[in-house]
Amino acid sequence: MAEEPVAGSQRFTGSLRTRAARGTVVNTAFSVGLGGLTLVRGFVLAAFLTPSDYGIWGVLAVSLGALLFFKAAGIGDRFVAQDAEDQTAAFQRALTAELVLTAACVVLMAVAVPLLILVYDLPALLWPSVVIAGTLLVSVFQAPQWVFYRRMDFVAQRLLAAVDPVVGFVVSVALAVAGAGYWAFVAGMAAGTCAASLVAVWRSPFPIRLRFEAGMLGEYRAFSGPLLVAGAAGSAMAFGAALAAKLQLGVAAVGAIALAYNVVSFTDSVDQLVTGTLYPAICAVRDRTDILYESLVKSNRLTLMWGVPFGVGVSLFGADLVHLVIGDRWRSAILLLQVCGITAAINHVGFNWTAYFRALNRTRPIAVVTVAAAIVLLGAGIPLMIGLGLRGFAIAVAAQALAALILRAVYLARLFSGFSFLRHAARAFVPTVPAALVILAARWLDPGQRSLVRALAELAVYALITVAATWRSERGLLREALGSLLGRPLAAGGA
């Protein structure tokens, strides 16, 4: 049986501390790079696709994605947290459970797609849906990544994870340039998933076998039940917003929403990968509240150093991106881009809170926050969209982010009695304030015509001021992070 050096350890050793810290630093850089590739792909394709083609992909991604709430059961997370004697058997049970839930999603798709075509009045959804369903089944065989995840072998895990976005980027951009329309998205996704699954199977430490056992799914019930509720709420939120936009404003409006949500998707994907870095270590020390608190605060401070400037930067330069890069046909997405930028920055505060509740097997708060967010977005978003169009939807997105932030603060304060959420959030935004004020002042003093050269010059100034202010306020933590990256001993001090 393969050695399992990390998971199951009940002591937060220096080796584990260093490995987790080094993994956070390395994976943040890695994740920003790969997530940036996906973000760039979304905007590059926007330059070659019409808003309607982009909207069809948005309908596909949101509507079919809304049917995948079974995939939110957290089978991989549960595998990472378990301490079974036979890890081969544990992996094969988890793989089988993942396949069963994925097959259930595919069956649900088969039933729902004809209804979606009827509701949206888009026959073009049929064949892309078939390709996506097949791709979904193939994606199950990326499960060997869980093993490296559990062992905290982040180099191997990230190399496997890199296959999908890199292959997907190349195929999508090539097809978009060739004039394939929305098929550029579909084929790119299929190619990336198939390549990543093939490589994962090739590198799997355990044999790829299905292992059905009586009551196999029962062990996931308490852990996965609330996660399934959260997944269903998230799916309802995405589907409801896309459907309302299509029926009220047209398919091009769905394209605008999909384009703007590239920003949120990018930050979410990076956050998920960074959270993944810490999750095995969190599982290993879940009985040490002091260490959990330290890891929460430090990991959040490190991630907020790039997340807040990025989100605020998107808001500041979103109009330039549209007018000077991807084209004025996307001008309806400008306000939504700006709001999604601020939302992405806000969402970074306490971004990995779910990892701590999953590690402690307390997943109910995750369901509560997601359901509340869905109620706010749909309850406010649909009426506001009817009355104000995409501007109303942007207001609802901001309200949803605020509601989720408040609830996240409440739950974290209950888990960590010394955690000051407001101080934590204020500290994250302070380095970005002077940079943003300089840019706004420059525009107020010289409101002349915008050009690409001027926008790039402002972006450079914004970046330099942000870096300087961040170094001034967080140089101690940055030195510690650099020490962990270079393999130096870490101080065991508090946050």
Structural account:
With 495 residues, the chain is mainly alpha-helical. It is built from 18 helices and no strands. The chain is globular and about 70 Å long. The N terminus and C terminus are likely disordered.
Throw out a few tags for this protein.
495 residues; mainly alpha; 18 helices; 78% helix
Give the helices and strands as they follow along the chain: HHHHHHHHHHHHHHHHHH
* Helix content range: over 70%
Assembly type: single chain
Tertiary shape = globular
Secondary-structure content class: mainly alpha
Main sheet attributes: strand count, strand direction, barrel closure: none
For the termini, the CA-CA separation is 38 Å
Low-confidence stretches: 1-14, 489-495
**What would the average pLDDT be, to the nearest integer?**
80
Q: Write down the Rg.
A: 22 Å
- Strand proportion, as a percent range, falls in under 5%
How many β-strands, per DSSP?
0
- The count of helical stretches stands at 18
